[in-house]
Amino acid sequence: xxxxxxxxxxxxxxxxxxxxxxxxxxxxxxxxxxxxxxxxxxxxxxxxxxxxxxxxxxxxxxxxxxxxxxxxxxxxxxxxxxxxxxxxxxxxxxxxxxxxxxxxxxxxxxxxxxxxxxxxxxxxxxxxxxxxxxxxxxxxxxxxxxxxxxxxxxxxxxxxxxxxxxxxxxxxxxxxxxxxxxxxxxxxxxxxxxxxxxxxxxxxxxxxxxxxxxxxxxxxxxxxxxxxxxxxxxxxxxxxxxxxxxxxxxxxxxxxxxxxxxxxxxxxxxxxxxxxxxxxxxxxxxxxxxxxxxxxxxxxxxxxxxxxxxxxxxxxxxxxxxxxxxxxxxxxxxxxxxxxxxxxxxxxxxx
Amino acid sequence: xxxxxxxxxxxxxxxxxxxxxxxxxxxxxxxxxxxxxxxxxxxxxxxxxxxxxxxxxxxxxxxxxxxxxxxxxxxxxxxxxxxxxxxxxxxxxxxxxxxxxxxxxxxxxxxxxxxxxxxxxxxxxxxxxxxxxxxxxxxxxxxxxxxxxxxxxxxxxxxxxxxxxxxxxxxxxxxxxxxxxxxxxxxxxxxxxxxxxxxxxxxxxxxxxxxxxxxxxxxxxxxxxxxxxxxxxxxxxxxxxxxxxxxxxxxxxxxxx
Lengths: 351, 257
Ligand SMILES: Cc1ncc(C[n+]2csc(CCOP(=O)(O)OP(=O)(O)O)c2C)c(N)n1
Ligand code: SF4
Ligand SMILES: [Mg+2]
Known about the structure:
By secondary structure, chain A is an alpha/beta fold. Helix content of chain A is 42%, strand content 19%. The A-B interface holds A 22, 24, 48, 50, 52-54, 56-58, 60-70, 72, 86-87, 90, 94, 195-200, 203-209 and B 41-45, 47-48, 54-55, 57, 61-68, 71, 74-83, 86-87, 103-104, 106-107, 111.
């Protein structure tokens, strides 16, 4: 049965249905509905909700809860996610699972509360100190948001790694019909690292401090090997009409929605356009994207930023095809009309 | 309660990396003895700070996690909420608890989280080589207060017990010292009480230990103990700031009436 829900509410419900029982968060627009939903519903399922004193405290509560074996998450929006970076680095260094939702808003600084994609670098490059990456999932509909947040918990536990979900102000606030489909239970590895008191076993330590250089390098190598496995197994993307396309529109999240709309208009006009939508921003679908773009003549990257994902596109395409960029900032969403105009310009002037 | 003379079971039989005359080793031992006496070693989870005692898990034999600098009370909150049947404690220095982690300790205490914090106040940043701490005494010379701490520029020593005692929720708050054998015995009693209250599910318990850092104070271990007693205890008066258990006993026995 489909229900009409906002992205924030729907994703919070999905997280609870995925077994999340520990939520810690601090108010910030445009994600407040998520926190409020958790406050209302966690007590009903015997879960824990804490409005923390700060985003810093929230992420460290997640770390503690996860170390004790709980399915834990936090959510915030851009400025709050910046504050969480130290904790995310520790969680990655400790190799603990955690789910973090970023309902991205305009920046830098206090910016505004409108939708944006300007946290792409922060999300996909680790964000905090040290060599690590978060798995980064980018839904483009409310329905997909509910599915990805559920996958996030499984991925986090499968790899003992933080998983970040990049939503944005529009997706958080927008109402769409959603259906909470029963999901098959995903097997995750036994939690043989969690802290429960040492009764009946060797005591356990969760740490990221390795004072001897070879020990820290060895620990880093374990993390890097794990990240390589994630790159091998977890890349997700969607393509639309790319087979015969001359121009590939590359976009994720909200921008992918508008790019698909632009595609319809352009195809009606006889322009051969396709859409490539990365779903995992890390691991980024470099290979698949390069194959698709090489099959076309050019690509246009559309973002709500000054151009961040476009750098990954350059890395993927390695100069084999011209890459164009169209971005809006300040919380402005590039409209389908604008994307059509930009595409037409490329068809008439550059091809 | 008995005092164990033999080596506590909850303490590894190894020598520590702490300097001679450092308070950390003494307090570790008292904590380990408490675990033995309460029989809680097997269900205890420690949260180590960033500071000289970051390696406390090399000595205290319990499940342990390292927290980020100052964040131990938030990490402990997460642990305890998932494992209410475990005994959870944070062990924190003055830089960790009273400077970078002030928000976390105040709010964990204010929520009345049912864990124990052992706070080691040595009036200095030991691990990083002797910088000024929020608890550094007026006039005390450190790497970053080379002319002595001045109240005009650096304010006054921050008193954690007094501050936390303004809150409604904490169940037990006491400040003790390790400067003499008699004071060590008292300190042990306080640590025992704090964990016992946690076992009983009473709420947030806090023991501040006025400690020493002979290395960064530039003193011999004996002089450091003397200085701690003479100056530290003046700025940080020892005593019980909150004991809801004792208040309860009084009302129950009618001692108040
Ligand atoms: C975020 C962060 N800032 C600074 C440091 C460096 N640092 C390590 S220990 C420490 C101070 C420790 O002092 P204290 O808490 O008093 O513990 P002590 O060593 O005196 O027992 C600092 C500032 C750090 N590790 N992390
Ligand atoms: S530096 Fe100070 S606090 Fe650190 S171990 Fe030595 S005496 Fe103890
Ligand atoms: Mg100190």
